[in-house]
From TrEMBL:
Pfam family, one: Glyoxalase
Domain VOC stretches: 2-117
Name under which the protein is recorded: VOC family protein
InterPro entries assigned: Glyas_Bleomycin-R_OHBP_Dase, Glyas_Fos-R_dOase_dom, VOC_core
Origin superkingdom: Bacteria
PROSITE patterns per UniProt: VOC (PS51819)
Length: 121
């Protein structure tokens, strides 16, 4: 038995605004959509599903305590593109565990990290 893919689903407050955020800032494309209830965004080998909010009475705000971590082939260029356009969680830096990365927040407050392995000699 094999697992073939993982596609996170994020509950969003406003579907149109969220689709626009991912298309405008991160070059995702909305490849499928069901009115304001569900959408599938894709870029290269990364897919993210968006969903309208469930259980708003129990959970009045969107919540996710983790983050989405996206590996990229040029984190420095991506940093230059995004650093002045989106809310930054932490800036570009090298980490002892061998990654060069930064993190942003999307328009719903979800944290998205972008990383690239540091070259070793």
């Amino acid at each position: 038995m094999a697992f073939n893919a993982l596609i996170p689903t994020l509950e969003v407050e406003n579907m149109d605004e969220t689709i626009a955020f991912y298309e405008t800032n991160l070059d995702f494309v909305c490849v499928n959509r069901d009115d304001n209830h569900w959408a599938l965004m894709t870029k290269d080998d990364v897919d993210i599903m968006l969903s309208s909010r469930f259980n708003k009475d129990e959970f009045p705000k969107t919540t996710f305590t983790g983050s989405l971590y996206i590996h990229t082939d040029d984190v420095d260029v991506l940093w230059q593109i995004l650093k002045d356009k989106v809310a930054i969680c932490y800036p570009l830096e090298n980490f002892d565990y061998g990654m060069r990365e930064f993190a942003i927040y999307d328009n719903n407050g979800y944290r998205i990290q972008f990383g690239q392995e540091l070259e070793t000699n």
